[in-house]
Specification:
The chain is α/β, with parallel strands linked by helices. It has 7 helices and 10 strands.
Length: 220
């Protein structure tokens, strides 16, 4: 990209002189699990952060969160400058998002013997769905489900455990993760298609208008 990095833009993007990049450690597709807690995490999201810092000509510091809801909630504290997280309308009241740099499909896993055969059959009275609290797909389901009940757990692993222990009717999640979970439950099935595609984007605090414009161009 050719946009000039002015001192004012650099200050808005990295007011401390270091670009503080927030990572969601629970998304193993974007942050490699074996390096997530190291000083130098690897994966798509850390690589994007490093390239952004290189373009700005500033050092980088990673701010790590165990769950996306914690990352989103921390924007009001000023703890990070850019966050790599799923864009969602409920988060857009505080975070300015770029267009998606990656889409990840979300669907359901149902247990062996389930009568649920397709996505529309999930949203029925009495159906209980396990979901990771404050994930992007949880927030989508909050807006769209009419009849089924969401049963939230603290993180992806916990949502799988809740699904199994409570014998719930479906587990909502990112399709690549559900493929892994399916292998643990003989006879379980992934429903075809997706109920939404998570728009993985770069966010910055809403009041940073020039930074948001630069990040949109960066993603493009």
């Amino acid at each position: 990209m050719n946009r000039e990095i002015t001192p004012a833009l650099r200050t808005e993007l990295a007011p401390t002189g270091t670009l503080r990049v927030a990572l969601n450690l629970s998304n193993f597709l974007l942050v490699n699990a074996d390096t997530a807690h190291s000083a130098e995490p690897t994966g798509i999201a850390p690589d994007i952060g490093r390239e952004l810092a290189r373009c700005l000509g500033v050092p980088i510091a990673f701010v790590k969160y165990a769950q996306p809801g914690l990352l989103a909630a921390a924007v009001s504290s000023g703890a990070w400058d850019v966050g790599l997280i799923g864009a969602d309308p409920l988060r857009a009241s505080e975070i300015a998002f770029t267009p998606a740099y990656l889409e990840i499909e979300a669907t359901y896993l149902v247990p062996a013997g389930s009568s649920i055969r397709d996505l529309p059959q999930v949203d029925r009275p009495g159906v209980r769905i396990a979901v990771g609290d404050k994930t992007a797909y949880d927030m989508y389901l909050r807006r769209t489900l009419q009849h089924a009940q969401l049963c939230r757990a603290n993180g992806l692993d916990a949502s799988f455990e809740l699904f199994v222990l409570e014998k719930l009717d479906a587990l909502a999640g990112l399709k690549p993760r559900l493929v892994v979970d399916q292998q643990k439950l003989p006879g379980s099935r992934l429903l075809a298609g997706c109920f939404t595609s998570i728009q993985q984007a770069i966010g910055t605090p809403l009041q940073r208008g020039a930074a948001a414009a630069y990040l949109r161009a960066f993603v493009a």
